[in-house]
């Protein structure tokens, strides 16, 4: 009896195992057939709607957008640090406009308002310092940040400039920065000679008109070129310097960079037999002016 029961249990167990294997084998075949049918219907390719139906699609686009924004932010941060280094120690007004325009990839309109000393006045093939200045500043800042407009009125005296209204024309250029020459050299060589009191008065008129046209303009005053072994000319230049200080007008004293007017070495910066700068003189002049727009320590 026990043998019969034992044999029956074995038979039932084997039957269950065989039945189970047949069931799961058929199930797998059905799943495989169904999968082949789906692939056949789609031609083996994903439709455009598959990406749309992907719940992660929007997340991927958002991630890419966030990545671009982060990259742009990093670029702005690096640019800001560079501008901070290059403008460290500059006048607050100059530093502010350089950083503002630099971050916006906008141009700073810089007008040079002066006499023939600011150009190749003797047609010697020199590169005038205003042109050198634009090239140098943009090279240092790594972008076309400065647009220099050279307004050189040859040998006109300050009286003639006022009478012709050229100062108004310059004001209407709506510059961000103006470097205004005091016209002492032209006034001292005019016919008639312009008294230094009139030079100062005309200079004040020019500054006023520039400010009236654009209250945000940054105005610098500078002397013309130095001249070897002159007597009255340097005293007139000093009078303008004092006027600028008394009226809180920024004064660029580039004479500090030249040899003294009593030093024969000054002749090495002038065209032979002339009192107009040669290429070496223009280079020196440019470098000094550039120091008002570039942190000298950083530049070096």
From TrEMBL:
Spans through the membrane: none
Cited Gene3D superfamilies: SGNH hydrolase (3.40.50.1110)
Domain SGNH hydrolase-type esterase: 124-284
Biased composition (Polar residues): 65-76
Region of interest (Disordered), ranges: 39-76
Cross-referenced Pfam families: Lipase_GDSL_2
Name of this protein: SGNH hydrolase-type esterase domain-containing protein
Lineage: Bacteria, Bacillati, Bacillota, Bacilli, Bacillales
């Amino acid at each position: 009896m026990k043998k019969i029961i034992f044999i029956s249990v074995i038979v039932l167990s084997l039957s269950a195992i065989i039945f189970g294997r047949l069931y799961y084998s058929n199930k797998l075949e059905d799943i495989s057939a169904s999968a082949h049918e789906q692939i056949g219907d789609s031609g083996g390719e994903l439709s455009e709607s598959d990406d749309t139906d992907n719940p992660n699609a929007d997340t991927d686009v958002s991630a890419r957008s966030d990545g671009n924004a982060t990259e742009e932010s990093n670029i702005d941060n690096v640019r800001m640090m560079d501008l901070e280094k290059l403008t460290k120690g500059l006048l607050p007004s100059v530093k502010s406009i350089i950083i503002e325009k630099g971050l916006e990839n906008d141009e700073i309109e810089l007008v040079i308002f002066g006499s023939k000393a600011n150009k190749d006045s003797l047609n010697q093939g020199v590169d005038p310092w205003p042109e050198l200045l634009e090239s140098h500043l943009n090279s240092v800042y790594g972008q076309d940040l400065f647009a220099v407009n050279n307004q050189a009125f040859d040998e006109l005296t300050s009286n003639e400039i006022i009478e012709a209204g050229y100062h108004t024309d310059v004001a209407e250029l709506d510059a961000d920065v103006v470097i205004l020459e005091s016209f002492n050299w032209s006034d001292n060589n005019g016919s008639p000679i312009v008294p230094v009191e009139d030079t100062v008065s005309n200079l004040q008129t020019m500054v006023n008109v520039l400010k009236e046209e654009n209250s945000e303009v940054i105005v610098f005053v500078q002397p013309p070129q130095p001249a070897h072994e002159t007597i009255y000319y340097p005293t007139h230049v000093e009078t303008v310097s004092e006027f600028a200080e008394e009226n809180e007008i920024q004064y660029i004293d580039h004479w500090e960079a030249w040899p003294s007017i009593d030093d024969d070495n000054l002749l090495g910066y002038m065209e032979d037999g002339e009192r107009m700068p040669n290429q070496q003189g223009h280079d020196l002049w440019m470098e000094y002016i550039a120091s008002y727009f570039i942190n000298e320590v950083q530049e070096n």
